[in-house]
Model the fold of this input.
Amino acid sequence: MSKDPILAGDESLVETPVTAASRPAFRPTPRMWFYLAGVAVMYASGLFYAMAHGLSVGSLYRYGLLQPPGISGEEARLVEIATPLSWNIPQMLWFIYIKGAAVLVELFQYWAIGMLIAAALIVFVSWEQVKAKMGYGGLKANFLAAGAGAVIPICSCGIVPVLAGMVQAGIPLGPTMAFLIAAPMLNVPTVFMTAGILGWPMAVGRILATFGIALAVGQVLTRWQRKHRNPRRFLKIHIPPRLSPELQQYAFRFGMLAMKRPEGVAAAELGAGSEAKLALLEEGGLVERTREGLWKLAETETGAVKSVGACAVLPAGDQIRGGFREKIGEMFRMGLRLFVQLNGYLLLAVLIAGAIKVLLPTRVITEWVGGTALNSVLVASAVAVLAYVCTYVEVPTALALMSKGMGPGATLAYLLGGPGLSLPSIAMLSGVFRARVLALYVGVSFFGCVAAGYIYNLFV
Amino acid sequence: MNDANRTVRLYYLPQSFPCGPQSSCCGPVGQSEEELRGYLAELESHLPGVTVETIDVSQKLRLGRDLPALKLLNTFGAAACPIFVLDGEVVSIGPPSIPELAELLKAKLEAAGAGQKTGG
Done:
């Protein structure tokens, strides 16, 4: 390799792109125990409050409402004890807490079942098999990726490391993006909660709309990537892919030669079949072709990427040794683990739902996002993006907003846009994707939410 | 030929398990202590007098001295380790066959020695 005369004597220290990180075995933190205790206390409070005040326990379980017994029909979904707005702050806080607790009592059953189903999918589905079926992208692969995203319980805040892991695993950008869109917008626990609390039509609408948006973005990216193979056209960061041992050996041989001749190496110098191998390395962003038709190592920025493992959140069916019995045991352990890890979101969700019920005047909701007009869906989508509703929080808050008069289409747009598209996740992804990909992701997701809400209003 | 003052730099990544202790899905990544000791012992036996300097790439590197290794790590990531560098020239990337590497290094050292004699 020719030495850079300017850098040759440079003693400045630089970080390398690799770290010797390791993930310790799971142990609940004190904060997780605190949230778990919080959930237990809140659940008990909701139940005791209803019993102590002679309210209907059945309504509490069915609708998450604190209402007197004997109410039936449509009224049963709407009537709740009055909480007049006043400057008595402790009383307001108590009402927020107790109405949130009522939502928690209803939500908890779907939450627990959903976590167990999610755990079963993680334990019984092999990520290696899913990956193998994705191939080079295309409709089938994008559909499969969106489906994989839909069954894996990750929040929008955790998608960047997963993106890095997927690119590292050699999954094309179309399916990767389809996965990343579907994962926060849709997952088993939230589908269960949506169906249980807001009804099956809303859950089906949510599933169809998520797949529609994920497939639209995935298909466009698949087309783009077929045209431009180098991932640098789409990604700002360089993530070294995992290569097969043969290609790895070839890449290293090329690397040695390219270090000696930075101006470029002719494919013919590396023997027969080199063009095809170099094209594969180009797809991985490792090499690039010069204007003269020579090949050189791709220019990368120092410290541009950290080594990331994505397996923490991906199905690990192939990693669990033993038979069916062991897997069932692992499923319960994984379910408990997910449950313990995510209780903080549950508490946050029900407290926000309680606050909406107590503090937000019904008039504001009915005026802005009530009815079935297009503007209500537009406003709901915009609010969802600005509000940053974390996955799992959207269902209880949507329930509270619906009880205040939010329209059905606007609710669907909120359910999709809240966890799927938010300013913090756009900010995070802007550090990963180039402008064109980011515009595609944001544009299709936002207008997908609006279109889904509008179409839902036409049918319901 | 006098190899006594020649130094081979061995860039390595301490072994880690990104997906949890002893997991195999994303790792292990890097070189174990035994592996590293093996490389050192083999090189010492094949190339007496040559100093092998080990450099942990999970720590910060010196831009001037370590530029070739840095470029390879940026492109290939942790898979490029171990990297063997002699006089600023990369002689091996990735897990090597030590006898082959020793032969290669011997040839390079001899060529350099011959060059010095001719030049001197």
Q: What stands out?
A: Residues 1-6, 20-24, 302-315 of chain A have pLDDT under 50 and may be disordered. Chain A has 18 helices and three strands. The first strand of chain A starts at residue 13 and ends at 14. The radius of gyration of chain A is 26 Å.
